[in-house]
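Justification of resources, computational component.

The compute hours requested in this renewal are based largely on the per-chain cost of generating structure records like the one below. Each record pairs the submitted sequence with a full structure-token output. That output is archived, and it is also reused by downstream analysis tasks.
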Amino acid sequence: MEKNIIEKIKSLNPELRKKLLKNVADLADILHEFTNKDQKTNTYNYTFFQNVLEIEIEQAKRKNRKISIAILDLDFFKKINDTLGHIKADKLLIRFAGVLKEQTRKSDVVARFGGEEFLILFTETSLDKALKVMNRIRNAVKKDKFLSKNSLTFSSGLTEFRKKDSSEKIKKRADIALYEAKETGRDKIVVVR
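The structure output for this chain reads:
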């Protein structure tokens, strides 16, 4: 059947074939966005993050590459929702996601993990370099007029891939660090080496 479709497309006049192929490419882009992106924040979704993390771990094992991950949680976001309302809280969430994307590279993967939680996969990045980016993110959040006006801060756990890590082990380490950040005052980054 697939071969039959290809033959039919080839038999179309060149102009119609060009339009059809462009529409198919546009549809593929739309499907990619729909299946891999969080619709509210336009960051990647957890499934996409997990798939890329698995691939990056295999690359790190075979080619001795460094990767780091961070889990971020907006501090007291439920209180923000209750105080400012869901619409304004959503705007803060969307702006925060924008800051994350602005401060990371295209090769890094920023994903929404939960309601107000995000993950960042720093590809080919040591822990020290990832920490510099995380500090840059903290500074950008503090300098952002909309976020700072609404006292938005975040806590984060950061760790680096170890040779025997699975995706679950590295995420668990970052999660433990996140909880330490939250339990020791929030608005900070805790690193697990």
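Strands lie at 68-74, 109-112, 117-122, 154-160, 189-192. The mean pLDDT is 92.
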